[in-house]
Specification:
Elements: H1 36-42, H2 49-63, H3 71-82
């Protein structure tokens, strides 16, 4: 089963606009809407469960000595792994 989760905004007129990836299959779907603010506040930390999990992964990596990279370093690493040309700014 294909399942995705996205965060979007509900407009003041209570409308929701959502664009799905091109590879998402056409046909009937089930849509569940829940306020993100309630999810974050229900954990008591202000972070969503996903945010808590990602922070735990990051903390474990840092504890093992993984170096912290800047955004530019991360993007350069992604380009390197994709085999894309390197920018020589």
């Amino acid at each position: 089963m294909t399942r995705i989760s996205v965060e979007t905004q509900v407009s003041a007129d209570h409308r929701l606009q959502l664009t799905l990836p091109d590879d998402f299959p056409a046909g009937p779907v089930k849509v569940t809407v829940e306020p993100v603010a309630e999810l974050a506040s229900s954990t008591g930390t202000g972070e969503s469960p996903l945010g808590q999990r990602l922070r735990a992964i990051r903390d474990a990596a840092l504890a093992e000595g993984m170096p912290v990279m800047t955004q530019d370093e991360v993007l350069a690493e992604v380009r390197r792994r994709r085999g894309e040309p390197v920018d020589d700014d």
